[in-house]
Amino acid sequence: MAEMLEEIKVKDASVPVVFEEGNYIPIVSIQLVFSNAGHLSNPAGKDGLADMAARLLNEGTKKDGSSGFATKLDAKAVDIDMHVGRESFVIEVSSLKSEFPYAIERLLELVKDPNYTKEAMDQVKHQKIGWLTQKKSDFDYIAGSALRATLFKGEALGKPYDGTLASIKEISLEDVQTFIKTHLGYNNAVAVVGGDITLQEAEGYVAKILSLFPKVVRTEVKKIEASAKKEVVLIDEETQQAYIYFGAPFNYSYEEKDQYKAKIAEYLLGGAGFGSRLMEEIRVKRGLTYGVYASLRRTKPVSYLSGYMQTKLSTQEEAKDLIQEVVDDFVTKGITAKELEDTKKFLLGSEPLRMETLSQRLARAYNEYYYGRPLGFSKAQLKKIEEVTLKEMNDFITSHKELSNLTFSIVTKK
Question: Cα–Cα distance between 325 and 302 in angstroms, integer?
Answer without folding.
Answer: 25
